[in-house]
Write a structure and sequence with these properties.
Elements: E1 2-9, H1 15-28, H2 33-51, E2 59-67, E3 70-78, H3 88-97, E4 100-106, E5 109-117
Antiparallel strand pairs: 1-2, 2-3, 3-5, 4-5
Helix pairs in contact: 1-2, 2-3
């Protein structure tokens, strides 16, 4: 299993780095353009929710794990530790763009986990 780690400031203007990294890894795994765009949307939504309200100087740590047509992304942001609420529209969007997703908080850290699987095009 390949793993990529990225740490960025917990600010919305840096989320493009999270999206670009996800797209690059997914492209290497053979995801098609639709799947990559879905992944970019899902990563953006999850990251935005986790960093919402983060004070200056806080970082968002991301781990991308690639394995045989599946990409798992975990994000962590140290702040209030209160599990963020996902807006109903964002929740619906995540249900359409990700195969699995969860969000939570523990010990002063907000976190998320997101999984996207490549469609098997041989069937």
């Amino acid at each position: 299993m390949d793993e990529v780690r990225v740490v960025i400031p917990a600010q919305a203007r840096f989320l493009r780095i999270a999206r670009l990294t996800a797209a690059g890894v997914a492209g290497d795994l053979g995801f098609d353009l639709r799947e990559i765009e879905d992944l970019r949307v899902a990563v953006d939504e999850m990251c935005a929710v986790v960093i919402e309200g983060a004070p200056g100087g806080v970082e968002l740590s991301l781990v991308y794990r690639a394995d045989d047509g599946e990409l798992e992304i975990e994000g962590r942001c140290a702040q209030d530790g209160v599990a963020p609420e996902i807006h109903p529209i964002a929740r619906e969007l995540l249900a359409m763009t990700a195969d699995e997703h969860e969000i939570g908080a523990r010990d002063g850290v907000r976190s998320f986990r997101l999984v996207k699987r490549r469609t098997d095009r041989s069937a």
